[in-house]
TrEMBL record:
Residues 53-463 form the Glycosyl hydrolase family 13 catalytic domain. Residues 1-17 form the signal peptide. Its EC number is 3.2.1.20. This is alpha-glucosidase. One of its GO terms (biological process) is carbohydrate metabolic process. Belongs to the glycosyl hydrolase 13 family. Gene3D superfamilies: Glycosidases (3.20.20.80), Golgi alpha-mannosidase II (2.60.40.1180), Oligo-1,6-glucosidase, Domain 2 (3.90.400.10). The keyword Cytoplasm does not apply. GO terms for molecular function: alpha-1,4-glucosidase activity.
């Protein structure tokens, strides 16, 4: 009898475990902010913060060698260009700027020891700082200074692959235990007419061509989803997972506040390495990664228990953030990376929908933006938190993709919708892509496509040095050159100029950062009263609080819009302007003025934030 009960109990446990992987979704367009009854002290820092992505090579260089660093000897003033020797330099010197910007979290792209074949995403030592950025003392100083100023520090974590210069890989090549199976190795399926070994299957690298590289010393192929110098680690080997836990622990013990996990969907491949991935119909380039349907190399279910282990580890420390880089066209699949209340995984997978759907101005309408925003909100698992991203180091800058006139409006959208905004450095001032010649191209992805096609695929244009002032190299460095060219527009488009200007993208951003701290944005609902081809609107409302209406003109021409027509909810006749895009210079729509909602004038690409009475 006891044996029978034990078996029954075991079956029940298995069923419950399976249920934990099922994500319950909500379809409501009325989405809450943080729980209304949640005490402020209980709200995780990442829910109330702006996350700022700082690409270390391009923030500040004072060594100087033309490449950004963590800490140096000089501090470059963002206002005057003068130097001060009291506060250090590099990224650390920008702590006051970041604090004044309203940022709460700084996410650093990889600063680990690396041969830099993929600019830090090829790691040769996971617990050391690359000398190009400084040393561990510099990192400790950065963390201490940021924490003193109330800023959190989040690191990029790259578990899928290491550098081929990592000692693990070198020992794996030599079959030295316990490293023999630290990477994904496979025998050739035969030899070609020239006697060269043939890869075990047709799998492709993201950077083009076969994902298999022959190693003569070991006499096998190794698998690499990215560069051949970035061999994939074998997460089916328990020791690999244990070492990754140790790496996370090392940085957590140093005071790091969380991690952004790179390329998480690539962590596992099927065990059978003879399987070919199916071809995408109509593909004409067999070396292009997009020519295959990657059913055997991305998004495997074994990934979730690994994330769960990391979640458990981070939860042993107070208030740590786990962000996941997940690319998927399937919303149900994407939302699984949140986990659920009984099986929590990442705090959030990155929301790349705005990047995917804001590729150019011609496709951007009020309806398309509403659909894009709704895709995330309507599929969000119960109790989980949204996030909004306009750009990052892998795509062109948003101002170049959809237009400079939309800079303020789109910042209004991501900072005032419910959720956590993630800002890529320079977006706060409207930085643009920089033309990079073939001779100056650094990005391996661009280089792999060759001189005729590099501009379509290179990520360099969005990675150029931050534009601090009008001095040589935009105040980024005092060196004689920079690792990538500075955008020639830096003389007029820079932080110092926007601080001194009467109105600027930077000033609008700072105002938005202050505004979003109000209760209505932290806890209130969101609704979308008026959506047309040209107009996107949303309201933030919370009982007993002043309501806010955000209006965006997505057309490339001025409009006068009647918001009282075709609205899904009652609106007052008039509202008060809180802020507007810098493109609007009208005397009739200045902040503080009352404007009619049946004849609201908007310039091309303008965003406007309005307050409504609490009775509406």
């Amino acid at each position: 009898m006891k044996r029978s009960l034990l078996i029954t109990a075991f079956i029940v446990i298995l069923v419950l475990a399976a249920v934990t992987l099922t994500i319950s979704l909500t379809s409501s367009s009325e989405v809450m902010g943080t729980q209304a009854d949640e005490e402020a002290s209980d709200v995780p820092f990442w829910k109330t913060s702006i996350i700022y992505q700082a690409y270390p090579r391009s923030i500040s260089d004072e060594l100087p060698d033309g490449t950004g660093d963590l800490v140096g000897e000089l501090l470059s003033s963002v206002v005057t260009g003068a130097h001060n020797t009291e506060d250090g330099a590099g990224i650390t010197s920008k702590v006051d700027y970041l604090r004044d910007l309203g940022v709460g979290v700084v996410w650093l792209n990889p600063i680990y020891e690396s041969p830099m074949k993929d600019f830090g995403y090829d790691i040769s030592n996971y617990t050391a700082i690359d000398p190009i950025f400084g040393d561990m003392d510099d990192f400790d100083e950065l963390v201490a200074r940021f924490h003193e100023h109330g800023l959190k520090v989040v690191m990029d974590f790259v578990p899928n692959h290491s550098s081929d210069q990592h000692e693990w890989f070198q020992k794996s090549v030599r079959r030295e235990e316990p490293y023999t199976d630290y990477y994904v190795w496979a025998d050739p399926k035969g030899t070609d007419d020239d006697g060269s070994p043939i890869p075990p299957n047709n799998w492709l690298s993201v950077f083009r061509g076969s994902a298999w590289q022959w190693n003569e010393e070991r006499g096998q192929f190794f698998f690499h989803q990215f560069l051949a110098s970035q061999p994939d680690l074998n997460f089916r080997t328990p020791a690999v997972r244990e070492d990754m836990q140790k790496i996370l622990t090392f940085w957590l013990d140093k005071g790091v506040d969380g991690f952004r996990v790179d390329a998480i969907t690539f962590l596992f491949e099927v065990k059978d390495l003879t399987l070919n991935e199916p071809e995408v119909p109509g593909s004409e380039d067999p070396d292009d990664y997009a020519s295959l349907n990657h059913i055997y190399t991305t998004g495997l279910p074994e990934t979730f228990p690994v994330i769960r282990d990391w979640r458990v580890l981070l939860d042993q420390y107070p208030d740590k953030l786990l962000m996941l880089e997940v690319y998927s066209n399937n919303m149900e699949t994407l939302m699984k990376y949140y986990g659920n209340e009984t099986y929590p995984l990442g705090d959030f997978p990155f929301n790349f929908l705005l990047i995917d759907h804001l590729k150019n101005r011609s496709e951007l309408t009020g309806e398309s933006l509403r659909t894009t925003v709704g895709l995330w909100l309507d599929n969000l698992p119960k109790g989980k938190w949204p996030n909004w991203v306009l750009g990052n180091h892998d795509v062109g800058r948003v101002a170049s993709r959809v237009g400079e006139d939309l800079v303020d409006a789109l910042n209004m959208v991501i900072l005032l919708l419910p959720g956590t905004p993630v800002t890529y450095y320079g977006e706060e001032i409207g930085m643009l892509d920089t033309f990079i010649s073939w001779e100056d191209t650094q990005d391996p992805q661009g280089c792999h496509w060759g001189q005729d096609h590099y501009q379509e695929h290179s990520r360099d244009p969005a990675r150029t040095p931050m534009q601090w002032d009008e001095s040589k190299f935009a105040g980024f460095t005092t060196a004689n050159s920079t690792w990538l060219p500075v955008n020639p527009n830096y003389k007029t488009l820079n932080v110092a100029a926007q601080i001194l200007a009467q109105t600027s993208h930077l000033k609008i951003y700072r105002e938005l950062a202050v505004l979003r701290r109000e209760e209505v944005f932290m806890k209130g609902n969101v609704s979308f009263p008026v959506i047309t081809k040209d107009i996107f609107t949303f309201m933030r409302h919370l009982e007993s609080y002043e309501q806010y209406l955000v209006v965006v003109n997505l057309s490339q021409k001025p409009v006068e819009v009647n918001l009282l027509q075709n609205t899904t909810q009652e609106l007052p006749q008039k509202a008060n302007v809180v802020m507007r895009s810098i493109t609007d210079t009208s005397e009739n729509t200045k902040p503080g003025m009352e404007v009619p909602l049946d004849k609201l004038p908007l310039t091309a690409g303008e965003g406007m934030v309005l307050t409504l009475s609490s009775e509406v």
